[in-house]
Design a protein that fits this description.
This protein is an alpha/beta fold. The protein contains twelve helices and ten strands. The strands form two sheets. It has a six-stranded parallel beta sheet with strand order 7-6-5-9-8-10, sandwiched between helices. Strands 1-4-2-3 form a four-stranded mixed beta sheet. The chain is elongated and about 65 Å long.
Length: about 270
């Protein structure tokens, strides 16, 4: 049992929780709680840490059943130092970062992407990942200035979608937008200068939504690279919505359109018999 905070494994977990540099260098991050540990793909799960009490629980025994999982038992006091939460559940894990490429973003039958420029709130980014999974988005592309996807707050906010939503962090957003155009992906920028409402546009073909920073929106030079502007109706005196809310509206509009297209295609197939 690990009973000292001087233990190197403990120090590593603490550094990974606190510093994005450490996460980038080790290509690893930390998840907490039985749900997040249970949902971690086994090929990404590097090591699990539990308290003595949690080791004896039915939850943990069910988690271990039929799996060859490397784990360490940690004293309660040491676990409290390793945890990033106020009320630790007694289990956390060291997880290898999943890796994706640009090809993963577009090599689907009909890609639908979310492109994020400099999103700063961990809760917003995590919500976008959850919503993107629910709406059937193919992948999320982020600028390197976007808040760290693998920070503890963001990881918790994804509620497990971090394992299932392909992502890409780009060094050059403008070049990437040009690459998307060459790949046949049409880009739509949520912008105050948009002339058409989002539900007047067609998202059934390969497309991507551009969402900007919470405070400043998209950079002007980025917005100009979009194929088309769109807007979301605003009543009252509002000028804009929360970034995650706006992204959710657009993603689910694309989902609605694509579902209707699929329903029509199936109706035609059945009707031809």
């Amino acid at each position: 049992m690990i009973s000292s905070t001087a233990n190197q494994q403990v120090k590593t977990i603490i550094q990974l929780n606190k510093k994005s540099k450490a996460r980038r260098e080790l290509r690893a991050f930390v998840v907490e709680g039985i749900k997040m540990c249970r949902e971690t793909p086994r090929e990404l799960l590097q090591r699990v840490y539990v308290t003595q009490q949690f080791e004896a629980s039915e939850n943990f025994q069910a988690f271990l059943a039929g799996n060859d999982i490397d784990y360490e038992v940690v004293s309660d006091s040491v676990f409290a130092h390793m945890s990033d939460t106020n009320t630790p559940q007694g289990i956390l894990a060291l997880v290898r970062m999943p890796e994706y490429t640009f090809a993963d973003m577009i090599n689907t039958s009909n890609p639908q992407l979310l492109v994020l420029e400099d999103i700063q709130d961990p809760g917003n980014l995590g919500t976008m990942f959850r919503t993107a999974e629910g709406a059937g988005i193919s992948g999320i592309i982020m600028t390197k200035e976007t808040v760290d996807l693998f920070g503890p707050k963001t990881v918790r906010a994804t509620m497990g979608s971090i394992y299932r939503m392909p992502y890409l962090i780009t060094e050059d957003l403008h070049q990437l937008l040009q690459d998307l155009r060459q790949a046949g992906v049409r880009t739509f920028a949520a912008h105050l200068q948009g002339k058409k409402y989002y539900d007047e546009l067609n998202f059934t073909a390969p497309s991507a939504f551009l969402i900007g920073n919470e405070g400043n929106g998209l950079r002007e030079e980025t917005a100009k690279l979009a194929d088309e502007y769109l807007k979301i109706p605003m009543e009252g005196q509002l000028e804009s919505l929360n970034a995650a809310m706006a992204a959710g509206i657009l993603m689910y509009e694309a989902h609605r359109q694509r579902r209707r297209m699929t329903d029509r295609e199936e109706s035609c197939v059945f009707g031809s018999k």
